[in-house]
Amino acid sequence: MEKIKFEEAMSRLEEILDKLEAGELDLDDSLLLFEEGINLTLFCQQQLQVTEQRMQKLIRKLDGSFELVEVEE
Amino acid sequence: MQPKVLTVSELNKFIGLLLESEPGLQDFWLRGEISGFKLYQQSGHMYFTLKDEESTVSAVIFKSRTRALKFMPENGMEVLARGSISVFNPQGKYQLYVDELQLFGAGSLSLYLQQLKERLEKQGYFNADLKKPIPSFVQKVGVITSQDGAAIQDILKVLRQRHAGIQVIFYHSAVQGMDAPMELAQGLHYLNAWGDMDVIIIGRGGGSWEDLMAFNSEEVVKAIFESRIPVISAVGHETDFTLADWVADVRAATPTQAAQLAAPDLQQLRMEINRSQQRMQAAMEKIYYNRSESLDQLVMKRILKTSGLMQSLQSREDKLQDLTERLLRAANDNLSRRQNQLAMAASGLDKLSPLKVLQRGYAAVRGETGVIRSVQQVSPGDKVQLILADGVLKVKIEDRETGERWKK
């Protein structure tokens, strides 16, 4: 769950809603979907609550590799 | 002393050597207006005259150099030509051998831009169908601009206001001058190579047209076009477009506006999520409602059909309940497995839940293998769980009775 992106979660949620609203699944499947949907909304809500802003600077080192450096604001 | 006698060829060679040994005439910039421009189709060389109010000088661009030109020279263009002076021996004429040509002044600039724009347009760089959408929930923003300009501060300020959790990955680049196009394009390549950003803002604050020229360079246009990550251009000028604006997925008039476009509208997203929850609740309620309705009807029918069996009504009610439980068990099987998660959600979700059905007096039965749908699934002595609204009963099967008589 942590790995998925907000956008993916939202589009999966939309899929689930479509299926649930069609009402053609049996209870078992409906409930599974429902739970998944609830978890997705919780996940999305959590994502919106992150409050720590970070700024990093992408630097190219002499050997050609990149490095991210934290920037104090 | 007898004057030395030179042949004409010797003279021209001698003068050529003199000119070529003068550092001030080698690899320098000459400003002038193009006239008498000719492109020789066979050789591919370009010949023209550079002039100002009082003087003219011949110039040539060899075919090998014309490929590097960023525009097609035209009479009347004010240009800066970089090159060296030497002598064309056959005619005893000195001329500028041009290595590089740049436009100078606004008139030529807009003409040059028009040409470049048309060419890039033909190549599909501004194709609206190829533009990528900005994600609705941007969490990581790449920013390419100068660390010394106001743009980066403007962008950070807005991002902070709109979404405190946003991550910024900043790449410093010159935004004007000879190095700017290359550095800006590199920034785009690097951020793309680094990956995992939702959107890239590339831009600078306002300036003169010359200041903004890097954002008109073919190099930057191509790099924006090739970016896998959606790009918002943010060149600070309200009215005029740079070519970067044309090619970008979204054009912002200023860095501030770019940040506004990139930052998610949290209010909107919250509403959307809430709406999804409500829809889901409604859908589940409906599903449960439909199931329990049909069950009630079924029960009534069967009771009526089996007149004379009133004495066993109680046991039938038990059976019915059993049926109901089987239906509802599905819910609880899942529910109890992830009770914590549901409990978290419960505050908002109370009314949708199967719990409500359970509160009507139904229970669900769960055995070791899962939901019990049939009496055949259990044997006397088996332990099963009865899931009720407020908890779980662990029970042991005493006896079982098949429900044949319930079949039609």
Characterise this structure.
The complex is a heterodimer of chains A (73) and B (408). By secondary structure, chain A is an alpha+beta fold. In chain A, 53% of the residues lie in helices and 16% in strands. Chain A has helices spanning 6-22, 27-48, and strands at residues 54-60, 66-70. Chain A has a two-stranded antiparallel sheet. In chain A, helix 1 packs antiparallel against helix 2. The two termini of chain A are 32 Å apart. The mean pLDDT of chain A is 79. By secondary structure, chain B is α/β, with parallel strands linked by helices. Chain B has 3 domains: 8-104, OB fold (Dihydrolipoamide Acetyltransferase, E2P) (Beta Barrel), CATH 2.40.50.140; 122-264, Succinyl-CoA synthetase domains (Rossmann fold, 3-Layer(aba) Sandwich); 268-406, no CATH class. In chain B, 41% of the residues lie in helices and 22% in strands. Chain B is built from 12 helices and 14 strands. Chain B has helices at 8-20, 63-66, 106-122, 150-162, 180-194, 218-226, 243-247, 255-262, 266-305, 313-337, 339-349, 354-359, and strands spanning 28-39, 46-51, 56-61, 78-88, 93-103, 140-145, 167-172, 199-204, 231-235, 250-252, 364-367, 370-371, 383-388, 391-396. In chain B, helix 9 (266-305) runs antiparallel to helix 10 (313-337).
Structure described in brief:
Chain A is an alpha+beta fold and 73 residues long.
